Amino acid sequence: MSQPPSRLRARLHQLYYGTTSDCRRFRYAVLAFDLSTMLFVICTSFVDRATWIGVVDVMIGIVLAGEFVARLAGSRRPLREAFTVATAADLLAIASFLAPLAGEGFGFLRIVRTLRLLHSYRMLGMLREDFAFFRRNEEAVLAATHLCVFVFIMTAVVYETQHDGNPHIQHYADALYFTVTALTTTGFGDITLSGTTGRLLSVVIMIAGVTLFLRLAQAMFRPAKVRFPCPNCGLQRHEPDAVHCKACGTLLNIPDEGRD
């Protein structure tokens, strides 16, 4: 027979899964911290590596490790949660921040810092409840988020693999510029990736630009489905040109722009 959870574990579970205002503020604080770490990674790419940056890296890693342990402790199924893709991403992100303790040989792990943004996707349910704008534009917001995360990950890969040996890639702005021009297949040619690895990476980015980038951009500006509650059954999502609800057949009157 399982033992009842301790008061600490019960409190942690409440913070991560509860619906009170304190719990919501806590989860928004976690989200804000995640976004702040991304901003720190970008900003520090513009300055020379210094001791204080390594110290901040380690401090962030310690905070992330503490949050990770607290989240597992607050879970009703910690063993099950420990073997998920999200948990693996968290562990890699934590290791990347603590890498300065082991030396620059583990610098490549900093690429996976961007995966911390995936952890923020758990906030979607709460955002639906708290923000009317998000409810009305969920598809567009999600498409924009996916696009930004993908661009950020590709930028991080370009920066981490090129900034040491490529004089054209000095900081994240250079890597972002190359990534966007490659994703959109613009290719001005003023920045190129060196070596066989760089060429292969360019091919991967361009293929992704033709497939994923354009698909996400299309979804962002023209969502595949519109939100319009059916007056009879309450179905929320319909095709843009739907006349009847596909669930119950009720006649719909979805506002549109009057275009084909």
Automatic annotation (TrEMBL):
Residues annotated as signal peptide: none
SUPFAM superfamilies listed in its UniProt record: Voltage-gated potassium channels
UniProt membrane topology term: Multi-pass membrane protein
Keyword DNA-binding: no
Keywords: Ion channel, Ion transport, Membrane, Transmembrane, Transmembrane helix, Transport
Statement: the UniProt record of this protein carries the keyword Plastid: no
Record GO cellular component, one term: voltage-gated potassium channel complex
Annotated ranges, domain Potassium channel: 147-220
Segments crossing the lipid bilayer: 28-47, 53-70, 140-159, 200-217
Gene Ontology biological process terms, A to Z: action potential
Cell compartment(s), UniProt: Membrane
Gene Ontology terms, MF aspect: voltage-gated potassium channel activity
Record protein name field: Ion transporter
